[in-house]
Amino acid sequence: MTTAGYIGIDAGTQGLSVVFTDETMNVLATGTSDYEMVPNLAEGCYEQQPEDWENALRSAMQAMRSALPNDIDTIDVLAIGISGQMHGEVLADEKGRSLGPVRLWCDARNDDEGNELTDRLGAKMPKRITVARWLWTIRNQPDRAQATAHITTPGGWLAYRLTGEWNLGIGDAAGMFPIDQSTLDYDQSMIEAFDQLVGDKPVRPLAELLPNVRRAGQSGGSLNEAGAQLLGLPIGTLVAPAEGDQPCSLAGSLIGDAGMVSVSFGTSVCANSVGDRPFEGVSPAVDHFCAPDGKPINMVWLRNGTTFMNTLVEMFGQAAGMDRSEAFEKMMAEAIQADPDCGGLLALPFMDDEPGLGIQRGGTATVTGLNPDNATAGNKVKASLLATMFNLRRGREVLDQQGFSRTELILAGGLTQTPETGQILADVFNTDVRLLDSAAEGSAWGAAMLGRFRHLTEQGGAGDWSEFLASHASENDTRFRPDAVAVSQYELVYARYTRLLEVHVQWEQALNSDTA
Predict the structure, then answer these.
(1) How confident is residue 253, by pLDDT bands cut at 50, 70 and 90?
(2) Is the CATH code 3.30.420.380 the one for domain 1-85+218-253+444-471?
(3) Distance (Å, rounded) from C-alpha 211 to C-alpha 217?
(4) How are beta strands 74-84 and 238-239 bridged, if at all?
(5) Is the pLDDT of residue 158 over 60?
């Protein structure tokens, strides 16, 4: 039997995954393959080889085919979507050949360039944005910069290898350079300012280097001979514009309307809010990119996610002789049952620094307010969870001040393993929370969604991107609505937490002072 459907590719930081869905987006088979960082680099340096992604894609496709149900003999791929880790700096020469290892989003070498560009361009330019990496390359690797004819991202590189075209989805492109919301293309005035900053350095103008910006439904090319051979699919198969992992995660969470917020809790925390207009000014707590259709996205990102909570859970579990899985099941159940005020406990979760909140030094995580009555594992674990939720709320306040709506939080990430935490989140934010029935599918499924939208657009029947996403919503989604009593209780705890946060500078100084 031949089954028609869509392929989604997600090239992440540690490995690559492929999904094949049927025409109604049910996942029929998946395949994965891993790769490593370039070894023996200095601390803070993270690079990968582009050919490793291609080898992983070939292996993952083979694994996906092996995982197909027995009643599927062949697949008819109607379109392909691509997701990739954002902000990487892939450099190629005028013949399209890679110029070597790629500095990834987590590479820390261009912090100064990010700050300099923020001041120069008047827009938030985090150190991970690709153009900050490019400025660093111009200054520190001039020969490599002079040989560069194309700059793209990991997802954009895979798209080029499959199609021979230098296109990129607008969300991933916004992670390379700011997008002008009036043109839905790179901000030309900022490009001119960047070229003036570079001055007489022997490099091509930035506009010549960046890939073409494409929105959901527009052409990302089609498989050429090399791409067809790599994937084992026919030449001419449609390819959607390659997107970043964050825009694809939004697609996978069916988030398209202004006011919808994707919230992912894990080692770090990310909240992506769809806006109806551009953000005004620069905030250390908020980064910016675009949804696949070009709508502005305001991202609040926390370095300190659930790591402190996880550390407490594992500590209590080890003391009780539990394995990790058993400890999480028991301790999270106790945390959910704990009172909103955790018996008077408050936690600071700062295992690491948190620049968006002004926390310059990590290693200050703590639980405070202990007494003989409240020193339970449930209270301590819940206090650490609430601290992370409170930090996210604190980071979002600048968006509230600018009047950006918040109609619904869509929960993803590690907390989905304990769905009841959705009620706590709803009460802390006084906002409806939804846990998707498809929450486990992730960015690869979101990439397949982009492939489906590209295919339907080609046929003339895709319609609006937001409506397309909404049409895939499931009646099986779990919903949590704020409880008025709990909202009031958490509001009091949040007020106490903000006061504690405000004295963190003194706390940090007391812990790290070198004087007697």
Answers:
(1) confident
(2) no
(3) 17
(4) parallel
(5) yes
